[in-house]
Fold each of these.
Amino acid sequence: MLYGIVAAITALFLAAVLTALLRGPALRLGLHDRRQRQRRVPLFGGAAVVLATCLVAVAGDWTGIAPLGDGIEVLLVAGGAVAALGLVADVWRLNARFLVVGTAVAAAFVVPYEDTGPVAGAAGVGWITFVALAFRSLDHADGVAGTVGVVTAFGVAACAAVEVMDGLAVLLSVFAAALTGFLMHNWPPARVALGACGSLFAGFLLAAAAVITRAGHDPVTGTAVLFALTAVAGADVALVVLSRRLAGRPLLRGGPDHLAHRLRRLGITAQGATVLIAAAAFSAVLAGVLVHAGRADARAVWWVAGGALVVVFGLLRVAVYGPPRARGRRAAQAGRPSRARGARRGVRVADGSHEARPAVRPGAGPAPVYAPRRQSEDAAHHSDPGGRRAGRSVSSQVKASLRVRNG
């Protein structure tokens, strides 16, 4: 127990230091989160979490202070391979199919087929792949994926401790501590992002550990426990898929339609949204741990499923996409006559007609906006009823018209 606490503290400080050190190279290389539009958040935070977890776990196993046990080395190597794939996705744009195939291949090496059987083992591979990609999707806001990962890691570690899998429990405790050290830099407003490297590694490690822990138990209860342990990540995926389907948007097209985005639209702060999502994850994970330990009936997971459905359908009513671009409306306005366009073409005179503005010569500066209006001939004639202005002569036609008008 003491060895596990020492390993966790070491991982926490090591992850915090590595995250701070790797932030500078990420900024110099221009590797920042592409989903951030208002500010640049550098990546490599996930690489710090992976390095801290693997270094502390390997050092504890090599020195004998915190041995991992049989099969945990394969899990750590497969998780490292998934993290490397995510790092490549952070540096270069990879097609989503490569992430799916690579994660599925890594998951196929960690599923205990002798305890699950071939059918349940294949289902376990699919579930591990889904959770890994769901955590990648959950990394849509500052602090969300890291906080949910810490809560889930402690829950899965508790399940492993119930099964007397001390090596797996130590590994998950070290991983939770490394995520906590990373959260010192990722709490909103974040200075470093987790990225695909860290989020894929987190989802893969947690899902694979849960499958290993539940191997050999009742498949129905096992399915309920696995769902409860990762209910928040699954609810986020369901919310995004449903909203994009209803809006007619492509599924792989990003947008502000995740859990934290919709909570922010409701007026909740970034820190408040992260705390609410973490509280929901804690409630679901607690139900899964109690069912796994036999302290609660499997029907308790139905409350988790019902709560997830209420959240998903409730947040679907929050408008996040905005009105579409009105290209057709702009085209219709282009062919419609407008007073403003007529006013641009000429200057309105007293009789209601438009007079063309004089052309502005190059270099002459802008034309005056409020130019004096020209006085019409009738106004000029009526302004002097006596028929003569100072310094000017009046024509005979004007004099005759004045005589007729005056009688």
Amino acid sequence: MATAEDKKARLKEIEEDIEGLRREFPDRTDDPQDYGDEGAALSQRQELSAQLEVLATERDRLKEELGLD
């Protein structure tokens, strides 16, 4: 069973991971791109969005368990 300190440490790690993923998020551009580049950027955005969602869900659960909100 994780202690409150373990949960707080994990929460800090999650916050850092979320911030890092947000920095990696590719900007959308109106510049013309070929379909391969556009498709790769879309795939990357979708993958990062899914990772962010998983981390946000875990962050919210930990905050609730710790009584932070």
Amino acid sequence: MPQAKVQHPQHSASASTIVTNSDRPSSPGVSSLRSHASRTTGSDDISTPIEQFEINEEGTEADADADVSGVRRSNGHGLPPVDGGWGAWTYLAAATALEMLIWGFANSYGVFLDHYDTIYPKSSMLPIIGTVAMGIMYTLLCPATLWLTSHPRQRIPAMWVGVVFLGAGLLGAAFAESAGGLVVTQGVLYGIGGTLLWCPPTNYMFEWFHSKRGLAAGIMLSGTGAGGLFMPLISIGLLERFGKRTTLLAIGIGYIILLTLIIPFVRPRLPLSQQTTTRIPKVNWDFLKHAPFWMLWLGVLFQGLAAFMPSTYLPSYATALSLSPTIGTIAIALMNTARVPGQVFLGYLADKLGARKLIISMALASGISVFAGWGAAKDSGGLIGFSIAFGIFAGSYTALLSSFTKVLNHDDPHLPAILYALFYLARGIGSIISGPISAALMNHTTLGNAKGGYGVQGFGVLILWTGAGMIMSGIGAGYKTFKMD
């Protein structure tokens, strides 16, 4: 069958070929690709090399997939199959394991905070350590996504650099002699290393999965909850028996070994020669001028300002109730575990119901769980019950972020990943700010005579702040006013 080759007239040597079946009408996917090609090869920017893609219009939906730029490609030329096969599932297993290790330790900081309080009493910097680590991972995802999208050859090297930073953070924390030293090591260095390890597997998911991308994302996110189950239990066992230095040394060395074994399985599906290797792709930033984006972004920010409080303070809260420290650790473990089914189910509902209804539902449910659950918890049963409820509702909130991109995306192939990173940026800012805010709130004892959890030492004001932040996260549903969906 005759084929038509489209090349840039001024750059035939470097321009790549778009192949179509000229005997049949163009499909929407081909029209989108032609439009994309015309934008990248316009006369106003003739110095930009054309990206290489190939269209096989005789392929079926099952044969097609999407590369990191969102352009449809075929499974030809010996590429591994999409949505299945040894390559896809080993990649997903490795990515889930990375998620489990990186975020499992970060979400276990409450265990370390309770232990650090005995080593560095009355230090206002201690609550900042965990929020700095998570905040950096959230905020750096945005620039890391932009950089690695335009420099895909740097993705694997970035992961190895991440191992160095993360290992240095854990081993350095073992020898830190002050709370400030822990902020730099267990906070900043760990956060940078976690970002470099976390970003590339997220990018590769768009190559390996298309029709099963929701399932793949749910499995990957479940690693956070799984890691949040066993890491607090491992950490408290080591801390109680061996102390801070040995615990962090053991975890640091163990992480370096495990990461070294996992990274080789985090592989791209598309050959590097067929990916963008020049500069940051052009993106239509007009969405920044519209209120719907900022409503959604502020909702994520409010959620981030409050969502990390329980995981940070539950062990200390259990101690304040004269409960065993193990109860606080179990509470964190169960909170993280509850996120696993919560994230998968919430992602499924987002496809069926749309984001707006779920934003409102999760905001109200999360707020009620705090005001009625944590605010009333005076024993181990109440504390564990709150932890499970909060994990299901507030802990699963990140599963909605991919739906937020659908509200604002207008067929720009690069925009979904960038929007996703910008929403994580809001969550990261909230995480970082929540550290000093929580330290300040814990200095207030104005509710000391209140009933239930509100009257436990300085936790009353903290509980009120957390519940209010959960309710305010519902502001994102205000985009309905602008009729964007």
